[in-house]
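Is this the right way to post structure tokens for a design question? Let me know if I should format differently. Anyway, here goes:
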């Protein structure tokens, strides 16, 4: 009797070679963008250490201080305008990121992705480390920290369009919201890990809060150079099929031997398909990508959705520290709950939008519910530990859910629109336009928070609520079209049933 294969071996052989490569690519790109976000997070954790309430800090014996009110702060963030300076540092990163993003997609389509990502991660790690070295080099110039953050912002733009383009090469259309929602959790996972790593060192030597994440992203850059496979053809795998159904009409089934009811010669069809594939693998222009239906609406929606998300990313630990009076490490750890909620929100948004075929409606509903939840969090969110945990999870889910859906499944839908006729190379540019526009909001949010917060945190939350409602407004036309489509299909079903 022939012995049966071990269960583990059966599991390994159940998947094809192509499946293993695709899974490995998905894992690598997840790891890469986790490292990108991991290196962005430390600044929000370190803020509460750069400017503290020195009256509550035990002064080391023998320390000669001339200003008892600010002796424990780090100049130049030791003055009353420290929130404005924090906003300027954040804005240096985010403005550079927003500007660079519009060009990054163009470069990502024309340069080898492996080299592009490797250089981006190595340089981003370098500038992250340089920010932390300011602690050891005793640098107190706002211009140094602003310049380092601006350069880091430019380097970080190499990440998103490149990983999306790489996933597009392996997975084709990638329209399943659930899969994209799970994959997009790298954003929240990176934020969580960044918060935890930075929190370990923030109270002892805050420079390490940057240096350690910088070393991590450099390490992933080396991993990218040695292991990333850009295209299935490079390793003899089957490339994905690039067929896209119309986003605004019912699917149409075609007989392989006919074209609109007319018999065609197979050899002619093969030649035409080869010419069409060749014609539509050219990089798309910026204006061409912008003219794709839905790109403009979702880009403007993401502008305000990302404004809210990044305001929390950069200011939530400081808000928790100021309002709930937590230490820097405790506030950083507590802020990770917002990102945990973001993971759940991204997955829920993907599943619901898959089931309803309504990307815009799903985003709009979540944004509408987020507005009153933000109001409640500001007023009752710090009343007890249980309330804080619950509100952070709910707000994180509602705020980051639409943001995750737009930057993944929606970008994949629009980047593979029927008007592109299977041009997968357009995905990088479309993704860069959508995320680049959103990054304008990401730059504006922390800056506005820095300017508004001296007047009270209530006003910051009012700004976030208005931004959520504006994001919904830009989706109103698409929501109306989706609802019309649902009503039309319902009437059609009723007609068939009556017949």
């Amino acid at each position: 009797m022939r012995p049966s294969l071990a269960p583990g071996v059966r599991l390994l052989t159940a998947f094809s070679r192509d499946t293993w490569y695709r899974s490995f690519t998905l894992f690598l790109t997840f790891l890469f963008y986790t490292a990108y976000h991991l290196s962005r997070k430390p600044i929000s954790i370190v803020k509460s250490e750069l400017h503290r309430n020195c009256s509550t800090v035990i002064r080391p014996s023998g320390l000669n201080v001339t200003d008892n009110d600010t002796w424990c702060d780090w100049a130049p963030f030791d003055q009353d305008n420290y929130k404005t300076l924090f906003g300027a540092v954040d804005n240096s990163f985010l403005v550079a990121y927003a500007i660079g993003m519009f060009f990054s997609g163009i470069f990502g389509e024309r340069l080898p992705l492996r080299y592009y990502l490797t250089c981006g991660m190595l340089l981003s790690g370098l500038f992250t480390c340089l920010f932390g070295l300011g602690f050891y080099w005793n640098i107190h110039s706002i211009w140094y920290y602003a310049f380092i953050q601006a350069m880091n912002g430019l380097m970080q733009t190499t990440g998103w369009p490149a990983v999306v383009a790489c996933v597009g090469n392996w997975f084709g259309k990638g329209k399943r919201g659930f899969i994209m929602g799970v994959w997009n959790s790298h954003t929240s996972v990176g934020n969580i890990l960044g918060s935890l790593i930075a929190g370990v060192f923030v109270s002892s030597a805050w420079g390490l809060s940057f240096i350690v994440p910088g070393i991590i992203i450099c390490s992933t850059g080396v991993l990218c150079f040695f292991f990333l496979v850009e295209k299935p053809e490079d390793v003899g795998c089957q490339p994905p099929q690039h067929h896209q159904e119309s986003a605004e009409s019912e699917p149409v089934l075609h007989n392989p031997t006919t074209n609109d009811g007319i018999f065609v010669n197979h050899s002619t069809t093969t030649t035409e398909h080869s010419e069409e594939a060749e014609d539509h693998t050219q990089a798309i222009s910026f204006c061409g990508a912008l003219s794709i239906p839905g790109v403009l609406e979702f880009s403007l929606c993401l502008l305000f959705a990302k404004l809210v998300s990044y305001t929390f990313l950069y200011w939530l630990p400081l808000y928790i520290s100021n309002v709930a009076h937590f230490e820097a490490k405790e506030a950083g750890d507590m802020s990770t709950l917002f990102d945990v909620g973001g993971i759940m929100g991204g997955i829920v948004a993907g599943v619901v939008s898959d089931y309803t075929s309504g990307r815009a409606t799903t985003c709009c509903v979540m944004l509408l519910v987020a507005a009153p939840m933000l109001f409640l969090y500001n007023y009752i969110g710090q009343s007890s530990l249980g309330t804080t945990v619950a509100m952070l999870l709910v707000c994180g889910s509602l705020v980051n859910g639409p943001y995750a859906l737009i930057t993944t499944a929606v970008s994949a839908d629009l980047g593979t629109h029927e008007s592109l006729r299977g041009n997968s190379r357009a995905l990088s540019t479309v993704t860069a336009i959508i995320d680049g526009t959103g990054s304008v909001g990401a730059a504006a949010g922390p800056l506005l928070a820095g300017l508004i917060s001296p007047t009270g945190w209530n006003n910051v939350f009012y700004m976030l609520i208005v931004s959520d409602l504006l994001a919904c407004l830009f989706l109103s036309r698409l929501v109306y079209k989706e609802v019309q489509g649902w009503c039309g299909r319902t009437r059609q079903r009723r007609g068939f049933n009556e017949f």
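Format looks fine. Someone answered above. Worth noting: Strands lie at 258-259, 262-263. Residues 243-280 have pLDDT under 50 and may be disordered.
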